[in-house]
What does this fold into?
Amino acid sequence: MSHLSRSCMLLGIGAALMSLGLSACFPVSLRPHSSSGGSSGGSSGGSSGPTSSVLDLYVGQCIQNPGEGTVYDVENAVCTTEHWGEVYHVMTITSSRMPSEDDMADMASDACVDAFEAYVGRPYDESDLDFTWYVPSQESWEDGDRTIQCVAISRDGDPLYQPVRNSGL
It folds into this structure.
């Protein structure tokens, strides 16, 4: 799928989610290689563990699949055991006005691609990994949420079993 097709797909997903008036950050996936992949509902790592607010995700944190829809909390995971993704970049939006859906998707895509190689050790377009991100919803923006969090995930939807930092995957 071309980058333009991905962008159009992401904008459509983002527009649909933003129009629902969601009250927390929500994920937008760039995972074009699998229709179900690692994005089916629920965790991909077994029993429930401690959770973190999606607003508190930090670089190096591994998480389980939060499923589809609005995401408030994610299940924490140990990076050396089965997990869905690893947060590799957190960016603060500096604009005083909430960016449009298109601008938000462009910002997230650019930030995640730009930070990918430095964290993973391989350019995104040569990697076995893909990424997704969380962006503020209208309601979370009004509550002060200004973060975009980039999460490295498996391109084929399989779980990860090691940290992706400097992995060259």
Notes: The first strand starts at residue 26 and ends at 29.
